[in-house]
Amino acid sequence: MSWTSVAVAGAAFCISGAAASAQTPANGRYARVNGLSMYYEIHGRGDALVLIHGGGSTIGTTFGRILPMLARDFKIIAVELQGHGHTGDRASAESFEQDADDVAALLQYLNIPRASFFGFSNGGNAAVQIAVRHPSIVSKLVLASTFYRKDGLVPGFFDGLQKATLNDMPRQLKDAFMQATPDSSKLLAMFNNDRNRMLRFVDWKEETVSSITAQTLIINGDRDVIQAGHALAMAKLIPDSRLMILPATHGSYIGVAESLEPASALISLTAEVIREFLLKQ
Predict the structure, then answer these.
(1) Are the CB atoms for 103 and 50 separated by under 8 Å?
(2) 152/73 Cα distance (integer angstroms)
(3) Which residues of 155-188 are buried (b: 16+ CB within 10 A; e: fewer)?
């Protein structure tokens, strides 16, 4: 989640003002995946690490600050999910399960048999489903500000979400979407789809979470939208998992665009912890 001002989902790519026409970074690419024109970027070299952004976000709005740090040691495959950023939409509701299948299909398209996955917020929910539905392609898992039960979010989150409108979406996220896809009707559709997916969410069973076999690093802020106790509960469920609670708000520890906290050494610290976790044999 990440539209914390309204209580919604994930993000970061510091952009000011909507662009007049779509802009695709020089290393941006598209693949036909499960009926979608799916946008992705590849950065760096090394073992494959897939980055999955938060709800309402783009690659840049979630990972713009931390991606260059991680690309020093890994081959980054950063994706944009259904209806987000540059990626097209389909005539079906969003689901974390479908997101998982889309990312798995992209790796098959790229001939990458196995990778580690770093998901933030709703991207973490998608990463959980990749580990559950496609365990053979997962090397290691990093789950940042991720939940598996609705009561894991701060009290009042879903009450706020019920009343949320596009006006409540952080300007940084709206601007980033419009720079990638300058169509206000598609922006509204993305907002509504993300919001409705959250409102429809049904708690995942503990046995589903505990079935994850990949080594997992769980990261959370102590003043996050996800309660620290919930992150601890998830760490207890997933075998061989590690937990890091940081003095941070939702996503500020990786520098998401909509974070109200100033730039912090926590971003470098988080990148280094992730690096050591992924490289450790």
Answers:
(1) yes
(2) 33
(3) eebeebbeebeeebbbebbbbbbbbbbeeeebbe
Q: Is 232 exposed, middle or buried (0-12, 13-18, 19+ CB in 10 A)?
A: middle
Strand order in the sheet with 36-43: 28-33, 36-43, 74-79, 47-52, 115-120, 138-144, 215-223, 241-249
With b meaning 16 or more CB within 10 Å and e meaning fewer, what string describes 79-92?
bbbbbbbbbbbeee
The dihedral formed by the CA atoms of 32, 34, 37 and 39, expressed in degrees to the nearest 10 = -90
Question: Are 255 and 65 a contacting pair, CB within 8 Å?
Answer: yes
**Among 238, 249, 242, which Cα is nearest to 209's?**
238
pLDDT at 264: 83
Residue 214 is which amino acid? A
Extract the tokens encoding 84.
């987000």
Do 80 and 51 contact (CB within 8 A), yes or no? no
Angle between helices 96-109 and 122-133 (to 10 degrees): 70
Domain spanning 28-279, CATH architecture:
3-Layer(aba) Sandwich (3.40)
d(CA 205, CA 202): 9
Count of CB atoms situated within 10 Å of the CB of 148: 22
- Helices assigned H by DSSP within the chain: 59-63, 67-70, 96-109, 122-133, 157-163, 171-180, 184-200, 206-210, 228-237, 265-279
Q: What is the pTM of this model?
A: 0.92
User: CB of 22 within 8 A of CB of 182?
Assistant: yes
Q: What is the mean pLDDT of residues 77-81?
A: 98
CB-based contact 279:74 (threshold 8 Å): no
Q: Label residue 281 by pLDDT band (50, 70, 90).
A: confident
- Please name the residue that has the structure tokens 């389909």: 90
